[in-house]
Specification:
It is a single chain. About 35% of the residues lie in helices and about 15% in strands. By secondary structure, the protein is an alpha/beta fold. Strand 10, helix 12 (about 265-270) and strand 11 (about 280-285) form a beta-alpha-beta unit.
């Protein structure tokens, strides 16, 4: 048995169900070995798309994904998607063939490349192929993006056959968390707020029970949107996407507990959202995350679910004394009613800025009106994947999701152009749900080639393009100072026609009435993706992009 075959068998035996990629000579054998073992290969149009598909699949499925690319340019083509995954701690193994001869035109320093973007690096050895491949998979399963180097000369080396067994993924070694200071802070608080981040995505139940025990309100960072969906005390996303009510309530908190969130500038509005008088606690399994974005008063090292359960255990035992969630607290019937009435962006009044056709200018639709109309049309069981750009807050704030797996938000690297492929990976992971890819026109044009993949897979995919004929973030950032904008504005383009050229259904939307074909498409059978080119009004910039540019 050759090493490439061993690697494929080991990764499949560990649980790899799908491998995304573009096949060349360097990854031909290992990819075929995976397919022969039982994995499904999803052929992308470009390695960059394949990387984002693998990222979206892992985020949505909660399992390890595989990315298979050619040596040299195959790896570098995938680099932006790989960087997004590494910064997001996506569980992914990148099968990266290595040309090890320094004079080879395919040679790149893979360990240095992985280190540069924050990924782990493992290499397969001829005499330890099964051990090395298994170790890479288990490292990914613990929450890392792993580049697995596959030297070309090693892949074809004959080695001992492998048929198992598969060692289990060892749990992260933990000690009993020190929760007494956190417990004391909860006991003293009258207006506590929990903000759950990426590191709390698997901890809904213990966090909800602990919040009930201490009267806390529940909020999330954008990366964890949907975590508390359906809970009556959920005030949704903190930070730039926060509703006016959420901002008001977080601003009145006397205790903020960040669960698996580093409280970055997006989540805290550059520190302005959390009052200076509040006690701030950070809970994270990674001690290096403590205080990286703002000072905190208390830290608790440990997995989020473990810490929450430990605090609950102390409360149940009665040894800690009760937490008074009543007198002086804010879980009142009146606040519950306010959250029901004003806790969603759908309930916040606005002045519609859509423009009717006049003076030769075609009509445009307000992106808020578009998003609200789509939210009414779409089935509740959905996955929403959002690209980056000036538009991104509209789908993030106006489109509800059923749970945390229903929101795929690739913003760790702030690259545009990743959303379409991420949505394809999410659709592969959850074919039982309608997947919605929300894109700007710039990101769509960058990634439209992956519509070939969408058509090939016959995925139930709705692509909504918020089309303002510009790189809107730059337009609204630089226009007030009178800078020329010709480099970031473009003639109107029929993006629906481009989509039809790829084999999708295409629709141009300028008014709410133009969305009627979406209703018919949703009724079935949805065997071809539908691309909606929504010509949105661009009268003003978005407040969340103002926050973003403050971080540059």
């Amino acid at each position: 048995m050759r090493v490439a075959e061993v690697v494929g068998r080991v990764l499949y035996a560990h649980g790899a169900q799908y491998v995304f990629g573009v096949v060349g000579s360097g990854n031909f054998h290992v990819t075929n070995a995976l397919v022969a073992a039982g994995a499904r290969f999803v052929a992308a149009a470009h390695e960059g798309g394949a990387a984002s598909m693998a990222d979206g699949y892992a985020r949505t499925s909660g399992t390890v994904s595989l990315l298979s690319v050619h040596q040299g340019p195959g790896v570098t083509n995938a680099l932006t998607g790989l960087t997004e995954a590494a910064k997001s701690r996506t569980p992914m193994v990148v099968l990266a063939p290595e040309a090890t001869a320094p004079r080879s035109n395919f040679f790149i320093d893979l360990p240095a490349l992985a280190a540069a973007v924050g990924a782990d690096f493992h290499r397969v050895r001829a005499t330890h192929a099964a051990e090395d491949a298994g170790a890479a998979y288990r490292a990914a399963a613990r929450g890392a993006t792993v580049v697995l180097g596959l030297p070309l000369e090693v892949q074809l080396t004959v080695t001992e056959p492998w048929s198992g067994p598969v060692p289990p993924v060892a749990p992260t070694r933990t000690t009993d968390p020190e929760v007494e200071p956190l417990l004391a802070a909860l006991q003293a608080a009258r207006r506590p707020v929990f903000i759950a981040g990426r590191g709390a995505r698997a901890a809904r139940e213990p966090l909800t029970r602990l919040a009930d025990a201490c009267g806390a309100l529940l909020a999330v960072s954008a990366a964890a949107k949907g975590l508390f969906a359906g809970n009556p005390w959920n005030i949704d996303v903190a930070g730039g996407f926060a509703t006016p009510l959420a901002a008001e309530l977080i601003g009145a908190a006397d205790l903020v507990v960040a669960w698996g969130s580093t409280l970055n500038m997006w989540t805290t509005r550059h520190g302005e959202l959390i009052p200076s008088s509040a006690v701030v606690v950070q809970v994270d399994h990674d001690r290096a995350a403590f205080g990286v974005n703002r000072p905190v008063d208390l830290t608790v090292a440990g997995e989020v679910a473990v810490v929450a359960e430990a605090v609950l255990g102390r409360l149940r035992s009665g040894s800690a004394g009760p937490v008074d969630a009543g007198s002086g607290g804010w879980r009142t019937p009146e606040l519950a009613q306010r959250i029901r009435d004003h806790g969603r962006w759908r309930t916040v009044p606005y002045s519609d800025e859509g423009g009717s056709a006049r003076d030769g200018a075609p009509a445009t639709i307000d992106p808020r009106t578009l998003s609200a109309a789509l939210d009414d049309l779409l089935p509740p069981d959905r996955t929403v994947a959002v690209d980056s750009g000036n538009f991104m807050g509209y789908p993030s704030m106006w489109l509800d999701v059923p749970d945390v797996a229903g929101f795929c938000f690739t913003q760790a690297f702030q690259s545009i152009g990743l959303g379409l492929a991420s949505a394809l990976g999410a659709a592969v992971a959850r074919p039982d749900r309608l997947t919605v890819a929300a894109l700007g026109d710039g990101g769509f044009v960058m990634s439209a080639t992956e519509l070939v993949t969408a058509v090939r897979l016959a995925l139930p995919l709705l692509v909504v393009i918020y089309d303002d004929a510009a790189y809107g973030a730059e337009v609204h950032h630089f226009r007030p100072d009178g800078h020329p904008l010709e480099t970031v504005t473009f003639p109107e383009t029929d993006l629906a026609a481009i989509a039809r050229g790829y084999g999708c259904d295409g629709l141009t939307v300028r008014t709410v009435d133009d969305l009627e074909p979406v209703r018919r498409w949703l009724a079935g059978p949805r065997t071809r993706p539908l691309v909606v080119d929504a010509k949105v009004s661009a009268a003003r910039g978005s407040w969340w992009l103002e926050e973003a540019f403050r971080g540059h």
